[in-house]
Amino acid sequence: MRLLLDTHILIWLAEGHGKLPVKSRRYIDRIAVEHGLAVSAISFWETAMLGLKGRIALAHPVGEWRNTILAGTGITEIPISGDIGIEAVNLPPGLHEDPADRLLVATARLHGLTLGTRDRRLLDYSKIGHVTAVRL
User: Fold this and answer.
1) CATH assignment at residue 89
2) Residue 18 Rama label (left phi>0; alpha psi -120 to 50; beta)
3) pLDDT, tens digit, 9 for 90 and up, residues 78-136
C-alpha cells in the first residue's frame, strides 16, 4: 500500500508538528520504507495559499520547502493531470465540493493510493467505499 499524504499531514510531517501523533509518524515511516509516499501537486498549492493567508508559517519559503521535501525525503510528487481533473469532477456522490480535496481523492483513486489524512470528511467518504483512506 502506497500512501498519498493529505496536505495537513505533509505539513505536520515536514515541520515536525506535534499534531502528528508518534504512532502515526511511525506508521508513515514504515510505509515510506516498505511502499513509498506520495503527495499531490495540489498540496503545494494549498500550502502556499495557507502561508499567503497567514494560517501557517513554514521554516522556509514554500518553494524551498517543496524542493527540500522532494529532494531529501523520498516523497514522490504526483502532478495534476487532465485525467485527475476529470475524475475530481466525476467522483461518486458523497464528497463535499472543496476542489483540493476532490483532486486529492481523484489522485488516490487513479493511482491506486491510500489517502493518509485526519480530515473527517475524507475519512467518512472512504467509508462509503469510493477511496481508500487511513486516519493518521
Assistant:
1) 3.40.50.1010
2) alpha
3) 999 999 999 999 999 999 999 999 999 999 999 999 999 999 999 999 999 999 999 99
